[in-house]
């Protein structure tokens, strides 16, 4: 009799656990934006680790989010800053739970995983052109355009004293040194490189060819320039090399006090990165209605966007997720995404800006779409 009672008790306990688990999953998937934004953590007492990898572009911001989220929600999130290309490769091999990529998935990749993969542009920033010219004080901003940059990275403009660069900077004609320009570029598969080369292609009047657009590029100046891995590598190479020029995410330039060039936009005006100039570039972006949709055109809408105030190398970086996960992973990811949408955007690292409300709604929709 005692054995039967014990067995019955065990069955009842198991049944209760199963019912509670289904209730939690059902409740969490049906919650509204306001409910999902609650500071209470369903998973706080559970040991869960989420693994992510990808863009170095987003790393300073995601590191801040992870620190705040993990301390308040009891969910560990690890992120490897390995570059967009490597991060997507790890994600599609199921090594990680999510990936970050500056450009969205290509149309071919999206079609291959259509209906099973989610992507959301979840943070805005900018690719900035940094330089190390000892003769120029920090309070003077060099002016450059797509033509000058394309010719520099093709090896057609070799010296800082080149007449074309002087024509863009009439106030600096006597201060631009007769020194060789050292271009710095990314050696890894990089979303930042795709953003930068997309700008060169769109803005250089045919000087930068389409075959030199992508995450990895056969740089014409290889052998004369300096390669660096990640935004971190390009930043350090620029700091350490006099007369160098490079391209990095805005936050890296701010954190390392690098000189940032003003870039000519589509309206012919020289603009610096700022919250206003980046938001101006995002104002007319046509977002797909669902995180399950194809976002492959968004990069071309943001880069070199119209508008007198628009910064021409503004960018939105994307998070890429599966639609389905094991139960606890699904809960943890839902919680992470909704925390960012409702609280995380209050903690923005210098060099990034929170995206418009329409982007945040897509992040909430992605959280609601994830199932187990």
Give the secondary structure arrangement, pairings included.
Blueprint: H1 2-30, H2 33-36, E1 49-54, H3 59-73, E2 76-81, H4 84-92, E3 98-101, H5 107-112, E4 117-132, E5 143-144, H6 146-154, H7 163-168, E6 182-186, H8 191-203, E7 226-228, H9 230-240, E8 244-249, H10 250-255, E9 259-260, E10 262-264, E11 270-271, H11 275-282, H12 298-302, E12 314-322, H13 327-342, H14 357-369
Helix pairs in contact: 6-8, 13-14
| CATH fold descriptor of the largest domain | D-Maltodextrin-Binding Protein, domain 2
- Count up the helices: 14
Cα end-to-end separation: 39 Å
Main beta sheet, described? Answer: 9 strands, mixed
The global form is elongated
| Percentage of residues assigned to helices | 40-55%
Mean pLDDT: 89
In the predicted model, the low-confidence regions spanning at least 5 consecutive residues are: 3-40
CATH class of the largest domain: Alpha Beta
Strand content is: 15-25%
Task: Tell me the domain tally.
Answer: 2
- CATH homologous superfamily heading of the largest domain: Periplasmic binding protein-like II
Element-by-element helix/strand order: HHEHEHEHEEHHEHEHEHEEEHHEHH
Structural class category: alpha/beta
- The CATH architecture of the largest domain comes to 3-Layer(aba) Sandwich
Radius of gyration: 24 Å
Secondary structure: number of strands: 12
């Amino acid at each position: 009799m005692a054995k039967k009672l014990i067995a019955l008790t065990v069955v009842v306990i198991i049944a209760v656990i199963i019912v509670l688990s289904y209730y939690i999953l059902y409740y969490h998937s049906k919650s509204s934006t306001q409910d999902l934004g609650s500071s209470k953590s369903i998973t706080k007492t559970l040991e869960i680790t989420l693994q992510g990898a990808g863009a170095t572009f987003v790393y300073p911001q995601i590191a801040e989010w992870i620190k705040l989220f993990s301390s308040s929600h009891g969910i560990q999130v690890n992120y490897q800053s390995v570059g967009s290309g490597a991060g997507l490769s790890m994600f599609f091999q199921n090594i990680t739970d999510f990936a970050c990529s500056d450009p969205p998935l290509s149309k071919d990749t999206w079609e291959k995983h259509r209906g099973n993969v989610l992507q959301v542009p979840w943070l805005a920033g900018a690719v900035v052109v940094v330089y190390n010219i000892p003769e120029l004080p920090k309070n003077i901003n060099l002016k450059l355009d797509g033509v000058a940059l394309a010719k520099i990275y093709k090896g057609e403009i070799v010296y800082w004293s080149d007449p074309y660069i002087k024509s863009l900077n009439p106030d600096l004609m006597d201060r631009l040194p007769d020194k060789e320009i050292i271009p710095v570029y990314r050696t890894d598969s990089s979303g930042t490189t795709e953003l930068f080369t997309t700008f060169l292609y769109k803005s250089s009047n045919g000087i930068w060819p389409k075959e030199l657009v992508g995450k990895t590029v056969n740089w014409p100046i290889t052998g004369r320039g300096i390669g660096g891995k990640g935004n971190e590598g390009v930043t350090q190479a620029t700091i350490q090399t006099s007369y160098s020029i490079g391209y990095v995410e805005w936050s890296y330039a701010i954190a390392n006090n690098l000189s940032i060039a003003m870039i000519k936009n589509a309206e012919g005006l020289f603009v610096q990165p700022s919250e206003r100039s980046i938001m101006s570039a995002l104002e007319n972006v046509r977002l797909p209605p669902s995180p399950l949709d194809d976002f492959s055109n968004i990069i071309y809408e943001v880069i070199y966007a119209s508008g007198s105030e628009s910064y021409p190398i503004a960018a939105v970086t994307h998070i890429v997720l599966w639609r389905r996960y094991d139960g606890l992973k699904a809960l943890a990811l839902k919680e992470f995404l909704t925390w960012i949408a409702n609280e995380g955007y209050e903690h923005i690292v210098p060099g990034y800006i929170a995206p418009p409300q329409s982007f945040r709604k897509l992040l909430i929709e992605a959280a609601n779409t994830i199932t187990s």
